[in-house]
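User: I'm putting together notes for a lab meeting next week and I want to include a structural view of one of the chains we've been expressing. I don't have a solved structure, so I'd like a prediction I can at least talk through. The sequence is below, exactly as it appears in our construct file.
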Amino acid sequence: MLKRINLDKNQPISDAKIFTTYLESGNKPKSDWRMGTEHEKFGFTRDDLKPLAYSGPRGIKAVLEGLSGMGWNPVYEDGNIIALLMDDGCSITLEPGGQLELSGGLLDDVHATCREVSAHLEHVRSVCEPLDIGFMGMGFQPKWGREDISWMPKARYKIMREYMPKRGNLGIDMMKRTCTVQVNLDYSSEADMVQKFRTSLALQPIATALFANSPFVDGKDSGYQSYRAHIWTDTDPDRTGTLPFIFESGMGFERYVDYMLDVPMYFVYRNGKYLDASGLSFRDFLQGKLSVLPGELPTIRDWEDHMTTAFPEVRLKKFLEMRGADGGPWRRLCALPALWVGLLYDQPCLDAAWDLCRHWTTQDHVDMRLMVAKRGLEAEFKGRKIADIANDVLAIAHQGLTSRARLNAIGDNEAGFLEPLQIVADTRVSPAEQKRRLFYSDWNESVDPVFEECAY
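Assistant: Thanks for the context. Below is the predicted structure for the 456-residue chain, given as structure tokens.
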């Protein structure tokens, strides 16, 4: 029986062991494991394909106000609507450049996840069609530059955008011009978390290759399969990457807390305001020595905020976030949770997936991450094409979903959701490569058709 741990989120904390306890409180018996899927999408005005501003009759604000009439509770910052919440924990939020993100509920199976995504996209369409607005799924904004995209009125983004250029060249592009699809998954114990973390982190480049869908930058062929993945290699080395310590002996909740304590801060939230703490130390905060809040100690809420400011390829909270995939069309929004649930939620399949990658080195992880951003499925790793490794991974995921035997109303299990990925692996043609070929043929070297082809 797993013990339940209750923590007061407003209690001042001076001992980092509380943060280890916080992560431990994410332990759940297998019967309680769920999945939570998140996806981001680019909005545009259909007549000129321009990104949506915040204000105006066809802005993001109008979209959020329209959606708020469908049972969502609006969230405001300085008088601006910036998010929508449901009583069940679902949310619709804004990324820095106006990308609209659905953070879905904690659901039992991929069938339910796919129904959730479908209903959300239908709601968005019903609001946007009268405004002649569209939303599309890709990993990187294909046409418009940084200067063409408006900042959303969220104070935390102002702090981040001023700090980002100090640590990398592409952080602003990450904020304004990328979109992803993620799935959040549970663990039962520290040992289970470690095995899932190691396996998913090592195999994240395989997901990047299968979901690669960002070949264009500023209306041109970037030469990358996933320019979004490339962005993360030059954003901020303090808070991104493949985290070599995950694969070392001694990895556990406490070791991850140590990592997070060394990630420089961005902000602290007090009395409805974000205070700029960029570059400061959370370790100093634990000693009451944070310069922007002298004498104050952090709370669990501060810790939760801080944990959202690290961006490794897999992120630990009270669950594990899979972060390696480009945004894409509806079927791939369903395929991403199917892939990781198949690999991680069946123990024999988790063992088989770990066996695939357990001997890879720190340098192997770095090399694979770089090569798939550029070459995707055609990259070679240890004498094999990434596409071949992807087929091995998909076979394991298929078995995992079959073993789970979560059936829909007509008796199908979840394995069918892997079909779009299997086609990609078999043909060795990623979504990015499909678009690149059209760019040089039917599209006459224009990215404009993408906005129609990729619209939801």
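A couple of points you could mention at the meeting. The CA atoms of residues 265 and 306 lie 7 Å apart. The two ends are 44 Å apart (CA to CA).

User: Perfect, that's what I needed.
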